[in-house]
């Protein structure tokens, strides 16, 4: 069986598989040839090209891929992988075109730091109460590793924690980031906007890393783009752990966010009751005020 693998850089011939080979053998072969992990691969075949959705143990023949086919490979960013709704190893995303599409927002609106290889930029993720993760990965990992995730470590009984984290309005932090680092085999570096602190998950265990920016109540992604007006499909989001340039630039992005006051810590932010105009500090004072007065409208403001 002879297949052509096309990505944005070149065309590679794959001739080591047959129709009875498993789909996971195909994705592993592609990973060995390109360095792109299976979870970060989007494969399209046919005309017009359509996403090839298959399970690891499906045969290549059952996916519709035939001898002589051209497979179009797109590398998915970590943000795209984390936003997978289904548990299959493929995700629907847009394949890069030969021309850079018109950007959806002005480059003047992008928080960025220039480097020799392009611009390190903030990529804002949708604030949908699940900006950090999909709970299925977390729950599965916790249940399979009870010795590492005890009731004491989780701060509540394990089953209760798994039930809580599966709710659509729940969102995680350090525990979930450490699980993702293990799951995706990449160090995750979380840059805290308020303090400039970098928390590293999976430190010293992997050669590659990704960066996220934590603004107190939300996680956004860091990417390297060739030019500010380029489509996000050209973003690089996986870096070498030895790349200090990206590290310093990510801190620079966090610094700019701090200057623009694009961060919020629920224990420190200043609020004003929208009904009686009383000034309050932090979510706990707001909760207490609501209990005493029945007021439920609060607005954050800067002193």
Largest sheet: 7 strands, mixed
How far apart the termini lie comes to: 68 Å
CATH class of the largest domain: Alpha Beta
| Structural class estimated from helices and strands | alpha+beta
* Total domain units: 3
Q: Identify the overall geometry.
A: globular
Tally of strands: 15
Total of DSSP H or I helical runs spanning 4+ residues = 8
Q: How much strand content do the residues show? A: 15-25%
Which percent bin holds the helix content?
A: 25-40%
Mean pLDDT across the residues is 79
Compressed to H and E, one letter per element, the order equals EEHEEEHEEHHHHEEEEEHEEHE
CATH architecture classification of the largest domain = Alpha-Beta Complex
The residue ranges in which pLDDT falls below 50 over 5 or more consecutive positions are 84-105
Cα Rg? 22 Å
CATH fold-level label of the largest domain: Cathepsin B, Chain A
Mind explaining what this structure looks like?
The chain has helices at residues 23-34, 78-82, 135-144, 151-154, 158-165, 174-184, 244-259, 282-293; strands at 3-6, 11-14, 41-45, 50-51, 70-75, 112-115, 118-123, 187-192, 198-201, 208-214, 219-225, 239-240, 270-273, 279-281, 298-300. The chain has 303 residues and is of the alpha+beta class. It folds into three domains: 3-82, Ubiquitin-like (UB roll), CATH 3.10.20; 99-127 and 184-262, Cathepsin B, Chain A (Alpha-Beta Complex); 270-300, no CATH class. Strands 6, 7, 8, 9, 10, 11 and 12 form a seven-stranded mixed β-sheet that branches. Helix 3 (135-144) packs across helix 6. The model is unreliable at 84-105 (pLDDT under 50). GO terms for molecular function: cysteine-type deubiquitinase activity; zinc ion binding. It is found in: Cytoplasm. Residues 1-73 form the Ubiquitin-like domain. It catalyses: Thiol-dependent hydrolysis of ester, thioester, amide, peptide and isopeptide bonds formed by the C-terminal Gly of ubiquitin (a 76-residue protein attached to proteins as an intracellular targeting signal).
């Amino acid at each position: 069986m002879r297949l052509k693998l096309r990505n944005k850089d070149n065309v590679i011939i794959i001739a080591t598989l047959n129709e009875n080979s498993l789909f996971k053998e195909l994705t592993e072969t592609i990973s060995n040839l390109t360095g792109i992990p299976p979870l970060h691969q989007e494969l399209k075949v046919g005309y017009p090209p359509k996403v090839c959705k298959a399970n690891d143990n499906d045969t290549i023949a059952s996916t519709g891929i035939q001898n002589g086919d051209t497979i179009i490979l797109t590398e998915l960013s970590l943000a795209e992988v984390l936003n997978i709704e289904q548990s299959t190893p493929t995700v629907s995303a847009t394949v890069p075109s030969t021309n850079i599409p018109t950007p959806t927002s002005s480059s003047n609106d992008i928080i960025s730091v220039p480097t020799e290889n392009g611009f390190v930029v903030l990529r804002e993720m949708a604030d949908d109460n699940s900006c950090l993760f999909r709970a299925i990965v977390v729950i599965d990992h916790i249940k399979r590793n009870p010795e590492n995730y005890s009731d004491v470590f989780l701060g509540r009984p394990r089953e209760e924690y798994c039930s809580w984290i599966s709710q659509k309005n729940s969102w995680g932090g350090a525990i979930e980031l450490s699980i993702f680092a293990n799951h995706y085999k990449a160090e995750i570096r979380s840059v805290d906007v308020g303090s400039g602190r970098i928390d590293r998950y999976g430190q010293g265990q992997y050669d590659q890393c990704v960066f996220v920016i934590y603004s107190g109540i939300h996680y956004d992604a860091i990417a390297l783009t060739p030019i500010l007006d380029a489509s996000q499909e050209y973003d690089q989001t996986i870096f070498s752990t030895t790349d200090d340039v990206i590290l310093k630039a990510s801190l620079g992005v966090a610094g700019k966010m701090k200057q623009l006051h694009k961060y919020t810590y629920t224990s420190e932010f200043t609020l004003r009751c929208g009904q009686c105009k009383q000034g309050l500090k932090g979510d706990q004072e707001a909760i207490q005020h609501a209990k005493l007065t029945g007021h439920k409208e609060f607005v954050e403001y800067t002193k």
